[in-house]
Amino acid sequence: MSSIFIINNRGEREPFSWRKVYQSALRVGADKALARHIATRVKKEAYNNISTREIFQKVEEYLYQDYPKAGMRFSLKEAMRKLGPSGFPFEKYIGEIFKRLGFTVQINQYLAGKCVLHEIDFLAKIDRQLLIGECKYHALIGSRVDLKVAMATYACYLDLKTGGFFKRKALKNLQTRSILVTNTKFSSEAIRYANCMKMDLLGWRYPENRGLEYVIESNKFYPITILPSLTGECLKLCGEKAIFLVEDILKEDAHHCAQVSGVPEKKILKLQEEARTLLED
Amino acid sequence: MSSIFIINNRGEREPFSWRKVYQSALRVGADKALARHIATRVKKEAYNNISTREIFQKVEEYLYQDYPKAGMRFSLKEAMRKLGPSGFPFEKYIGEIFKRLGFTVQINQYLAGKCVLHEIDFLAKIDRQLLIGECKYHALIGSRVDLKVAMATYACYLDLKTGGFFKRKALKNLQTRSILVTNTKFSSEAIRYANCMKMDLLGWRYPENRGLEYVIESNKFYPITILPSLTGECLKLCGEKAIFLVEDILKEDAHHCAQVSGVPEKKILKLQEEARTLLED
After folding, report:
1. What is the predicted ipTM?
2. CATH code at B228?
3. CB distance from B115 to chain A under 8 Å?
4. Does the pLDDT of residue A2 top 60, yes or no?
5. Given A115, A149, A196, which is nearest B115 (Cβ)?
């Protein structure tokens, strides 16, 4: 067992784990030899009370050197953190994902409940199903969406169900569900409550094997914040043009885009090159 | 109209109001002449962008000089802020108030809901009525308890109502209500929601004319943090002895209390003197 301790995202001490680093490298597509090489190198460089974040940065860097695509995929969690709250809001990205999955999506809707008016982050409709979506973005990666948030989301759903909005004829035969989406994890109590109330949850590694990271990975719905060369001015440009997903940057004419926005063309070309690397099969 | 602007507790600019200062002095028992004198003095000393807090401190100081009892009463809001979160929790003080009002009170209870276990700040029972209490303490005086908190409190109540705890025989014929208590104000949406859901609210100036400040004033349930001479060591002593209300400090034997606690006897005698001044008719 390792005698080196690390400080995780929640500020707790835990032993350094070679296996965790190894598996995290495998997970993003490194082969066994590369994963072994990286885990051993990171272990050698780790010191007592090193933060999880610093370990992640090392893994990302070493992956990127040998296998850029895996390096980018590794930074997905951090890329999600770079979304929102201002300019590039998490709920817009989530809305975009649901659109690509075939839903009709409306974001930031004000709907009348029985008691009060609610601001709903998104409504997503497919066939006879309507999801009422609440998004919780956390800048701190280690934080969790807790029971109080789940309860407030459910109470909002209840108030809507008995309110004016759902009395509309067009919504009569729809099956409605409440869904709470986050870029981080859920507390175990929030999960127990949501399951019991038949509320949907979508977050980091939840539901197991079908979490947000899986939805993104398997469909290549990467947020543009995952691209290493993305700077503030490009992020602003993407926000203005509603480019939320990496694949959308490939649809732009770099030359025209540069002329209109004032962002240098070579910066846009660099982003497109990274996008191609990330998305290639 | 005054040309001087102040910054209120919520960080907004508003014109200085002689009348507000005058009325706040009247409210705590100053006569018209004293209230007029204080309002005029404070107006003379006010400068642009002075904070509400600084104005309050001036009023308190000038009241205290001429009429100590009114000076102490004036600081009630600040005394509430000095409660909790650590050592001297708000929910213990609130529990104590409900006890004095004739309720049987239990604080910090874990109760099984249908879905999860809930930590309840207090249960208060009188006759066939049972209140399920949630306390929200805010260190920032200008903050408000918002709709999300009200919804989470209601969802918790719903989960308890359909859960294991309320299936107990002893609770069968009780009328239960959810009550949300705060040392600050409620947002207008939280109030609308609570009224609609038949939840009780108790906070600063709410319900109108029967708010927490009224319950405290009319029953002389002042928290011991209102006493100007209360220092950290005395606060610790009071916490240990479960002395939450000003009237309780008068029941103590100062000499014995000093010997046991190590707090100087003259400090305790000073607190008792202030307590008598505040509570006298």
Report:
1. 0.85
2. 1.10.150
3. yes
4. no
5. A196
